[in-house]
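Human: Respectfully, please carefully check these tokens:
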Amino acid sequence: MNKKIAIIGTDPRLHYLQQSVSDYLDTQLYPTMTWDKELRETVFSYEPDIVFLPIQPIHTEGPFELPISCQTVFIGKSTESIEKAVKKDNIQTFYYLEDEEWIWDNANLTAEGFINYFYSQEKQVIYNKEFIITGYGRVGKRLALALHHLGAKVIISVRSEHQLYEAKSYGYQISTLDNLFEEQMRPSVYMINTIPSKWLKNENAVYFKRVFDLASNPGCLIDVENTPLNYSLSTSLPGMYFPQDAGQLLARAVLKHLAFLEEEK
């Protein structure tokens, strides 16, 4: 008999995750972002062997608990209550947002999703436009490559000297983050942020043509109460534009980890 997986969350890619693993697992999708008494009772009665928690932190009303049947839990962004529950019950955990293969594949979808987002929002071509990308991790690298191939002028801005000169070796212009506003702040330039922390002052953001923030909530703005008109928090682009492809990536990460656990037995 197949193992049971309970998939929790409202992200559209989870529907395709369910479809993709259904040949190997009995599945049940719970389209909610709130762990409450009703969800607890429903999940517990299903008696899943595996629980897949949503990408964004689940909101809890009351204590978060996992059924006795649960042997493995897949965690997106964790919370204190989730960590307490998995440690208490000694459950095998897998933080799928930290899976290296998934991170790079998802970065490709994010880069392509941004291009779709830019076209739909700006109604302009990318060719010959100037883009500053703050941060040069996986998303920053894939995004720089995609924009460069479409004929954009790409400037990479980071604090890390290693990343700065790595970007230069690939032919991008560079600017240190500390000097960014002195050197590159122009009303014709688009900024794309990939740094997952609050570092951008609102008064600096308004001097760019537009700021696209791809980092997770709450984004890069220091003052989130007074959002500039040229700022947009543009998260979850893979789920927005490519839910099927993104769901299949999640399924690949799940099945790969379950296969690894079986090999360890």
About this structure: The chain has a mean pLDDT of 94. The radius of gyration is 21 Å.
